[in-house]
Each structure stands twice: as C-alpha cells, then as structure tokens.
Amino acid sequence: MSGKTGKEEGSKIRIRIQMHSMKPSLAMKRPRPPPLFSASTKQTSSTPPPKSLHQPKTPPISSRKPKLHTEWVPLNLSQSELSLPLTFPTGQTFRWRQTGPLQFTGTIGPHLLSLKHFQNGDVSYLIHSSPSESAAKLALLDFLNVDISLAKLWDVFSENDSRFAELAKYLKGARVLRQDPVECLIQFLCSSNNNIGRITKMVDFVSSLGSYLGNVGEFEFHEFPSLERLSVVSEEELRRAGFGYRAKYITGTVDVLQSKPDGGAQWLLSLRKLDLPEAIDALCTLRGVGPKVAACIALFSLDHHHAIPVDTHVWQIATKYLLPELAGARLTPKLCSRVADAFVSKYGEYAGWAQTLLFIAELPSQKALLPSHFWDIKEKKPAKTKDGNGCSNDGNYN
Predict the structure, then answer these.
(1) Do residues 99 and 43 touch, judged by C-beta distance below 8 A?
(2) Domain boundaries, the chain
(3) pTM (2 decimals)?
(4) Which stretches are transmembrane (predicted)?
(5) Which residues are catalytic?
(6) pLDDT in tens, 139-150
(7) For residue 175, what are the CA distances in angstroms to 122, 211, 264, 343, 391?
C-alpha cells in the first residue's frame, strides 16, 4: 500500500484525463490526384479538391485500422517483364498513383501495396497494409498476369512485325493487367466522353466509398467498394459529385448486376469462360457499355487477350500500318470489327497485348522518347468515330 489518499489518486486521474482531452485531432485531407498521363507532376496535399467533387454522404462500410509493413521484397520480375511507367499511367487503370521515383501505389482488394523499380531495373513490392501478407502477394501476382511471359510474347510479335520489334527495344515491359471485373467495369463507365484527369477524379470519388486502407505519401487509399456498397449510392449523389449523365450508367449497371441470381461479381467472373463475342454481347447488356468499353473490360479483366478496344488511337495505327486502304474513312461499328480482325490476324491470340504496346507508343509522352524514324510515315488526320466511344490524342475519351 503506498499510503496515498484516495483523494490524491482521484486528482491525478482527473488531470491525466484533462491532458488527454487537450490533444489535437488529426484530420486527413483527401489529396487531389495528378493527371494520370503526367506521372512526374505532383500535387500538394494543400490543394483543395474541386468543388464539383464532394465527399460522399454515406461513410464506408468499415474503417478498420491497417496493418503496416516496412520491407521491400523482390518480385523476381525484370524491367523487360514489367515496366511500371509503361503499365500504370497508360489508361488501363485509374486507381494507381505515382508515390515516388519509379514507384506506384494502389490497392488490390483489401491489400495496399507499392511497386518500385530499383537501380538494376528489377521490381520490388512493399505491403503497406493487408490482412494477410501471403494473400497480398498472391493477389499481386494475379493482378500482374505474371503467368504470361512478356519476353516470349514480344518474340512472337517481333517475328511477325519488324516495326513492333523496333518499338519493343524502347518500350519493354508494357504489361496488360488482370483487374477485378467490377472495379474495371466501373472505371470504364466513368471514361465515356471524358478526359483522363476527370476520369481519375470520378474513380477516386467512387473508391472513397470503400474501406480506408491507409495513406502513402500525399495520397489516401481505399479498397474498391463492393456492389452492395455501390447499390446504396443514388444517381443524385453521383450527379452532385460531377458525374453528369454517367451517374445513371453506374447506378443502372449496379442495379442490373445486383439482380443477377448468383450476384453481379460472380456473373462478371463467369464471362472469363465465354468466347469473346459472347462476353462482349453480355457486357453490352449493361447500361452505358458499348463495344469499345466492353473490349476494354474483356482485355483488362476477363482474360480475353485478343480483345481489341478500337478508339481513334487504334484506328490511326490500323490505317497507317495494317489497313492503309481505309485511311480517311469514317470509323463505323463494322470497320471497328475489321480493325480488330486485322490485329488478331497479325498478332494472334494475344493481339490485345500487342495493341497495348502500339497504343502506348502513340502517346505524346512516349513519342518524345522514341527516335524520329518511327514517325516517318505521314500521319493523317484522325477520323471521327460514329459511336463517340474513342480516345483522342489529347487524352480525351470521346
């Protein structure tokens, strides 16, 4: 027994409680993401979010505290198998952010991870938060499609196309991702008649409806919300957040998916087992999904490696190098099919991967890095798309 009176002990407890209550609360501000095609451009956390994108009314279903990790682990992928700058900021996904030199951060399910090129070019990963380190690694390997050897594909493509062989020397490691189909679908619904910066902000808003996983650098990351979570978001709320007419596409598609007997997520996964035309037709039953968006979803999430999303970039590539007789023609749905067939005829069952590299080579950021002889062929003015579902050279989805 210490001999201290109960009165003295009570006074000390009250003092400690008062001191604890005086600690300031820390409010985390949601940073504004940089434009996806300008990976070197950074926004400061003091930049206020645009007025058109409000924070969601309804909070995430859960806000569990993340488990933090601090060690970089080699992924055993060389830069020729995975180039982060040629994979993430090129329009496949709008949820990964550049968080350091040659470092990109994003979420895969409940896992928050960073990928980074080290001095020798090889890629390592860091798990910032995850309920299971082993599950996080498996999810990452699946997301990166590591079972597919990029070097072997590039050899096959190069044998059939001398220009591809030259481009591949400068653009090694442009890998096609294997995304969650729900996440991929919602992202590309946001892309309709839109530009890269605004698509990113919309996807960022949708992501904020999911469970908070942590902050890396100046960015806040969330698990992508489930269909159940998205089903309670109203069209009006999305319109107030700046989605415009795309709001009805998202709410309408979520409603249709929620009505599927085995659930919308399972229905989307089942499309991996269908032939490509059947998968495209099934996706086009969803509100706001046309052939081009369906092809993006099929290529980037449903294992249809020969899917060809035909936009104005791809149309220009086709008319310059594959179908020059169509130069100057108006792009119609029938010609879209002809372009897709031309890519498959030349590059085979992984034609979508070849098209991805050729698409990346046409981006202004990459053109500046390539020798001038790649552009000896005179470029013609891009044809207008009839269905308004393409992507122009300035990063606008038309």
Answers:
(1) no
(2) 181-301, 312-397
(3) 0.79
(4) none
(5) 292
(6) 999 999 999 999
(7) 14, 28, 27, 17, 20
